[in-house]
Amino acid sequence: MTMPVAVTAEPFRLSMLIYDTRYRSITIQIIALVATLTFFGWIVSNTLANLAALGKTFDFGFLQQRAGYDINQALIPYTNDSTHGRAALVGIVNTLLVAVLGCITATIIGVLVGVLRLSSNWLVARLATVYVETFRNVPVLLWILALMAVITDLFPAPAAFRGDNATAAMMANGTVAITNRGAYIPWPVFGTGWQAVAIVFLLSIASAWAFGRYAHARQVATGRTLPTFWIKLALIVLPALIVDWLVGAISFQVPELKRFNFEGGGFIDKSLIALWFALALYTGAFIAEIVRGGIQAIARGQSEAAAALGIRPGRIMSLVILPQALRVIIPPLISQFLNLTKNSSLAIVVGYADVRATLGGITMNQTGRELECMILMMGFYLLISLAISTVMNVYNASVAMKER
Amino acid sequence: MDDVAWTRTEMLGPEAPPASAVGIVGWMRANLFSTWLNVILTVAALGAIWLLASHIVPFFAHSVWNASSYSECREIVARTWGEGASGACLAVIRERWKQFFFGFYPADYYWRPTLAFILMFVALAPVLFSSLPRKMLWFSAIFPGVAYWLLWGGSIFFPIAIYLGFVAGYVAFRVAERGPSFLPPLAAAVVTIVWWLFIAGPLANLLPDIGLPAVQSKQFGGFMLSMTIGVTGIAFSLPLGVLLALGRRSDMLFVKWISVGFIEFIRGVPLITLLLVASFLLNIFMPPGTNFDIILRVIIMVTLFAAAYMAEVIRGGLAALPRGQYEGADSLGLNYWQATRLVIMPQALKISIPGIVNTFIGLFKDTTLVAIIGLLDPVGLITSIRANSAWNGIVWELYGFVGFMFFICCFGMSRYSQYLERRLRTDRH
């Protein structure tokens, strides 16, 4: 065995840290590291000095103290005797509520408008374009405030529903009242035996899933298809309805006009309605563009080839176009969902008690714990962002093109 | 064959298409009534248009320009057009338009923001349209100083002293050029920063106070405030975004971590929390006794926010470039900065134009969020006008006006980006 000729190693000189590209990057990184650490150290020492000067400490004990303020809409039990930590939790739940409602509504609006923009109908396509451009080019804060102002100033007060010459009427067969305070809607009341209905409902979902598996296996084996959608729908809905009708467990309580206001049923505060629909309409316009772009990105040859194979138009959409378009649509759709969640922090302008209004608003002002509140709030939003993008990235990886 | 009485010797001219396939009728058949579904959609769309028009047209047709309160407006509308008629109370715009444009800027000095606004277009023109003479870029370079001086006033020597920092940096660059290649940029940066921190202020104070009367930041408001924040943010977020994007794609692990951390942190939190940091916490982070301008704080936060999004857009552009471009630049012997400046960035930025402009539009729309921390931008003004007893209850006029102004700016920007995309398209004719 012959040894390779040893390259005479150049002796290390200090100037090589700058001139030699092998070492230069290390030098730069060390400088960057030192600069960053110095910067953060500077900020921390400033903060400590300032906090000491103000006579403040850094601790999260205030979360255990009594909050002492009311929240107009809370999904979990809350009174003004609860702690600040509880108030923050109410805010978090409210943020998640409006984010989920908004994302669902925005997706529905976005898909509908995106498809309509591609419609061969000239008039409809133009209308969809007008909607998209109007909502995309005006700040969302303006939409939230405008919607709130519309509800407050232009919708009827509960008193307008009273008397023989009432100027407003309840909608949906007298079960829904939309007033300038919010919407009064029927609300389910769970009587005795509702557990039976719930169990039947869960079982029917399982059976629908099993049926889907069976139908798929049958199609693979024999080539014959079943009307899966309708059978699944019937499987899910009918048993629960029949059981509920027999047991009479779940009934709906309808709001009724009493002395001063509507009572009974459910109540959605106007701030939630304004925020929800403003966010949904605004984000829907962006989603419409994403959907349109995704469908247009699929080469025309794909649908022509599918038609040449004799596939029906509806199934071309569901079997050929959509699976490919979704791959283009999903990533930007995720970032729109994240944007909507982050934009829900504007809730404060309409008085909706989200986490920014409770933890980063009233609690912060009452306790004077700006630093702690901001850290908690930013941490919460960061956590949501990371969680949503992780979940969606997993989904994205599952639909990504399997390339070789 | 003689019994053929007559044979046509020339071709017949083409027959005109049937009346139902051409002209308006043909177009309508093809585009509006081609199938039953389309007929239904058309009718529904016409219904929607009619519904909108039947509200909007009378609203503007009955508009009132001369009134001092909302109730007076409604009285005039009811008197002229009958009980129950709706009419736009544009008197509020007429009364408050100066506030909407200039906030609480002293009325005698309205010419200053107006001039700055006009000069902005002169400064932007050579950047936006490459057919203009390149010498105009010199004006674009001094415009920020001019605009600052016009808006805030004060001694003219303050912006000049700041600009002299660049001159000092350039001189240092030339002096250090004999040294090793890393020295000139380092010397330029150090000299410029030292100049700004220690020399510019005393120098400006030393020189006589010649200039415009100073205007406080708290007097800024309306569209002028949105424009100031938006334009400054746009101008600074692009270079910062480029640096962050390069940092994120860097081979140097630590530089990459810093960039990733910064970008993901900023993108993970809402802008409003950053603005709250600017208004509540920045004084805690700075050395005791520091107090800097609220508008400056907001501009810094908005710029950082937009820069993180910009970095992601540009990173997309960098990733879309074929590998061969990087390898080609390397094989030509270009170093990192030369390759980036001459080969990579021009192409990556071209690919990213739609995303960049979208970020600009988003930034401009986000300037409305300053209303939440108490600055009187147009949205903040609407809230304060609606709280005024004279205009209580007014809705559409104010939101419509401000929304329309924002629409014009943002729609204009998106149209420009489409024009730019078409013009820079080199792969097709």
Distinctive features:
heterodimer, A: 404 residues, mainly alpha, MetI-like fold, 3-stranded antiparallel sheet, two-stranded antiparallel sheet, 6% strand, globular, B: 429 residues, two-stranded antiparallel ribbon, 70% helix, MetI-like_sf (chain B), transmembrane transporter activity (chain B)
What this model shows, in words?
Chain A has 404 residues and is mostly helical. Chain A folds into 2 domains: 249 residues, MetI-like (MetI-like fold, Orthogonal Bundle), CATH 1.10.3720; 60 residues. In chain A, 65% of the residues lie in helices and 6% in strands. Chain A contains 12 helices and 7 strands. Chain A has a 3-stranded antiparallel sheet with strand order 1-2-7. A two-stranded antiparallel ribbon of chain A has the order 3-4. In chain A, strand 1 and strand 2 form a beta hairpin. In chain A, helix 3 runs antiparallel to helix 11 and helix 11 packs antiparallel against helix 12. The longest helix of chain A has 34 residues. The two termini of chain A are 41 Å apart. The model of chain A has no long low-confidence stretch (mean pLDDT 83). With 429 residues, chain B is mainly alpha-helical. Chain B has a domain of 58 residues. Helix content of chain B is 70%, strand content 1%. Chain B is built from 16 helices and 2 strands. A two-stranded antiparallel sheet of chain B has the order 1-2. The longest helix of chain B has 31 residues. The relative contact order of chain B is 0.07. The model of chain B has no long low-confidence stretch (mean pLDDT 85). The interface between A and B is large, with 56 and 58 residues.
